[in-house]
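G., the chain you wanted modeled:
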Amino acid sequence: MTGVDILITGGTLVDGTGAPGRPGSIAIEADRLRVIEAGAPLPEHAGRRINATDRVIAPGFIDLHSHAGLMILADPRHEPKVRQGVTTEVIGVDGNSYAPFDDPADLTAFVELNAGLDGHPDITYDWDTVAAYLSRFDRQVSVNIAYLVGNSVLRIAALGWDDVLADQRAIERMRSLLAEAMAEGAFGLSSGLDYPPGSYATTAELAALTSEAGRHGGFYHTHVRYPLGDGYLDPFREAIEIGRLGEAPAHITHFYHRATFPGGPAPMLELVDAARAVGQDVTFDSYPSEWASTRLLILIPAWVQEGGPARTKERLADRAVRHRIRRELRARGTLFAGSGGLAEVRVGYFGRPEHARWEGWTLGQIQAETGTEAVDLVCDLLLSENLRLNEVTPGPDRATLPPFFQHSAGMVGSDSV
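Predicted structure as tokens:
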């Protein structure tokens, strides 16, 4: 056997197929690698040798839920993920993706609306189609990209930014756009049913789009409608039903148990098991952090955000609207804020220099400094920061995470940039 560029020996091979780990070595030549099973002869020469004794050798990890759809274009080396072994990012998650957009003004507005989730990097936003968007990644960034088309983008194209029921004509328009996007390289459809305007979609609308994704070999990837029904199992039941009606694989993203849920994790996993037992393709991902993070706008009721970011800002400035928000948040309770309520919501991604000292503070801490009532503070901060703020709240109950990661249908998604 001749020489190789890199030879990794002494480790345990875990190949990603589900097979048990086994001893072996890896030889890398140029842009190809090959497995050398235990006992087989090793290359005589190697430009670099790596001793992996007491370590695992595995293929690159796939992050099933990444918010790097814009930030990686500003920082294409993407080292925070690459140095953790991630080599493939699934982007366009939560129904929030950045193509196709026929109108550049809609793309600009959507980037503004979603900055608290995906950031707002200083790059050129000059694409329209999925093909044009994906060309910005090809041989330009350090990881592989798997792109999902968000249902928010499809709704904007077919119906605008308002909370209206999709008629058959609108559904056919969305299906056509999705089919074109998949022909240009998309892997499927995503939804984020707490994020307007995608959250305005009905179960039937989403099933029709899921059917289109499945027809082209794709799948349905969903941030579920968390306030639905009992706020515990019903959101996941809807996700599974959408996959069943659409006859396509359904993937529930950031699937985990919260301490505030009225029941334990077992019934959640039983929903997945029951669907799989009758032949439905249902999978999920979870993340190993006890924190959840999203855009601060999630605290604001969906009706406030109808019409897009400009209309949202008009309403946030209206005192009567704030009074209604205050009433609705009291009725909603801890959803999206955690058991400590608004005071314990931690905020970040400030852009204004005078706010930089508040990075990572809780709303309660900022309240103590400013003397501003909680809802007024949230609205004032969103307005002064052009909606871009991010929030961090309690997420998974750490004690209940193991069964999700041990499940045969479970995967890992970071839910991060």
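The CA atoms of residues 182 and 216 lie 7 Å apart.

Shout if anything looks off.
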